[in-house]
Amino acid sequence: MKKTLVFKVNEKIFALTNIDEFLFFNVKCNPEQAIALREEYKGVNPGYHMNKKHWNSISTLDNINTKDLKKWIKDSFNLVAKRN
Question: What is the reported pTM?
Answer without folding.
Answer: 0.89
